[in-house]
Amino acid sequence: MTCQVVYHNGNCLNTKKAYTNTCRLCIEVCPYQAISEYRQLDAQKCSECGACMAVCPSDGFVDVQIDKFYEYLEETNEIRLNCPKALPGGFEIPCLGMFDIDGWMTLILWAKKKPVTMLTGVCSACEDRTACSVSVQAFKQVHSFWPDHPQVYIQVRPDDSEVNKGPKGMGASKSFERNFSLDNWRQKSMKQVEHWLPNLTADQTYPIPKSRQSLLRALEKDEDDKIPFRVLSVSKMCTNCGVCASICPQGALQKTEEWDPDPAAKESPLEDKIVSQRLILEPQKCVHCNRCLEVCRIEALSYSTKMLNYRFLTGKVLIHEGSPLYCKQCGKRIFDNSELCLVCSTSDPKGRSSFFL
User: Fold this and answer.
1) Tally of domains in the chain
2) Which residues contact 28 (CB under 8 A, 6 or more apart)?
């Protein structure tokens, strides 16, 4: 038995950069316990509801037809989506639950240019209602920061006939299929192999999730468009340790260091050679995994929602500049707001910066 949902090991944050608190969002959200601790997907349990896709920040789990879906959004003159429980007539998606924040904002941006309608069954009576509720929460978050956004119409149109009782999966209506016809038999054969064995396509690795890529393409079409985006900010408490940049699995945070140009400083046994350090943020790469917030001991990092356009989202932003801290006594680098390192503070218990266990 095959499954439309596949696991991209190279995209998983746990694979990109090891971390003590491994990400388990996909495992915890799955209403059918179809994902093992090793991210193995049980096709017999999976309903393809898309909840794992919605919560995974880095495309660890994706639908094998996701590229076809994004092509449909861009090429069609009117976006009509329907779930398997609704009346057919548009592009069939596995479930409303597949949409994350970026997915909803993409639909909203397209709604400014052409009609966007989603047909659903009775979600409260559906076995995938847990996945739907996850996606609804994502939409509510978007709406709270962007209340005057263009309208996406959702209509409850359940299909009670037996015609639409086949397996789930993404697919276009007959009126649209011709736009995605394959050029030759070799391509058709490869497409059939991927349909039979979707895990063959599960070795893809890319730095920016496809939902974010689609969002950026929609945003690029109008320079005046702005969307709410959670941007990382740094407080004055920052000690310039640089751990946040080192732990970022997406490379969204980068640090640059300016060293003391004095030749005598290079030969000094002391470590105070870095005179300035900068933190650079690339918003388009940030998937809000919160690792940087978790690793910061002094809680100097936080998110703030701002309305950003395409230029700022795809650019590089200087969010902090400062100088590392060094022990006043021995000159070794320290990573908290104190004057002495651990060794010096414990050897001088009468000092102001004494450290006790």
Assistant:
1) 2
2) none
